[in-house]
Amino acid sequence: MLLDTASLYFRAYFGVPESVKAPDGTPVNAVRGLLDFIARLVQDHHPDDLVACMDFDWRPQWRVDLIPSYKAHRVAEEAPAGSADPDEEEIPDTLSPQVPVIEDVLDALGIARIGAAGYEADDVIGTLTAQAKGPVDIVTGDRDLFQLVDDRRGIRILYPLKGVGTLQITDEALLREKYGVDGPGYADLALLRGDPSDGLPGVPGIGEKTAAKLLDSYGDLAGIMAAADDPASKVTPAQRKRLLEARPYVAVAPKVVKVATDVPVPVVDHALPAEPADPERLEALAAQWGLGGALQRLLLTLGR
Fold it and tell me: What pLDDT sits at residue 87?
């Protein structure tokens, strides 16, 4: 089981009241909400291995170089020119201080936490999925990862509809029913349709339904562009014009939209811990941050 950790702690932050606080008055709603999410996921799905995948760079420069608008609207503060540090993401003031606490607690629990410099959590998830020898459940609220769905390998997306108690089990049948594509086809669909939440413009005038029809007719993005180039194809004049005018975007967008599957990730033990890796540290964190019942529920679930 691979967790898109930021996606889950954002959901926890907005789903658990900010009145949930540490003894010093600091909000810990995202911390406690995430611990409850993990407990429920382990209880319901019994993974053998669990990895919390992290965003070491939420807006990699190599993606921005290809499409400058990529996540540009989420930048709170740009890193200085030439700096190795990523741009600072615009996130709620009371969430950002909770992220280091989440990291400390996961480490003390012994839950594997993996990121890679210059890459997003999506890329870590893509790489670990490519390396996996058996089935993989990916827990994320980000539809971009639908591109990894693969029934043959048992790769599913568990997409939270309401917390993690109500999950959309996303397999190829669901993708075909909702979007008319399979996993790899979803990346092409997203590329053509665009995604305002990620600053991806898409091909103007090509919405989700038109993109799905084009993919159904021509197989993939390369097939669609070949058809646009072929005067004898059945692509409509308006669609042909839009696709050909968008050729510069279409040429670079696949590298931006498709998750990387060859990221240099550290080799660590992914096994679900039955007991904390550092009980003393965990006890100190529990007292400092008032983690109470949420931590106890997770420990009980891990110990079963």
Answer: 59
Unique residue bearing structure tokens 């998830």: 125
Three-class secondary structure of residue 184 per DSSP = helix
- The model carries a pTM of 0.91
**Tens digit of pLDDT for each residue in 227-243?**
999 999 999 999 999 99
CB 146 within 8 A of CB 174: no
Query: Could you give the CA distance from residue 81 to residue 179 in angstroms, rounded to a whole number?
Result: 41
Q: Are 30 and 18 in contact (CB under 8 A)?
A: no
The full length of the chain comes to 304
Taking residues 85-112, report their average pLDDT.
86
Q: Which two tokens stand for residue 134?
A: 């058996």
Give yes or no for a contact between 139 and 8, defined as CB atoms under 8 angstroms apart.
yes
Q: Which residue, among 92, 21, 16, 5, has the nearest Cα to 289 in the 3D structure? A: 21
pLDDT tens per residue, range 21-39: 999 999 999 999 999 999 9
How many angstroms separate the Cα of 18 from the Cα of each of 11, 102, 152, 183?
13, 16, 42, 37
Burial label for 235, CB within 10 Å (0-12, 13-18, 19+), is buried
Give percent of the chain above pLDDT 70.
Answer: 95
Q: Say if CB 4 and CB 140 are below 8 A apart.
A: yes
In 3D space, the residue among 31, 43, 40 whose CA is nearest the CA of residue 5 turns out to be 31
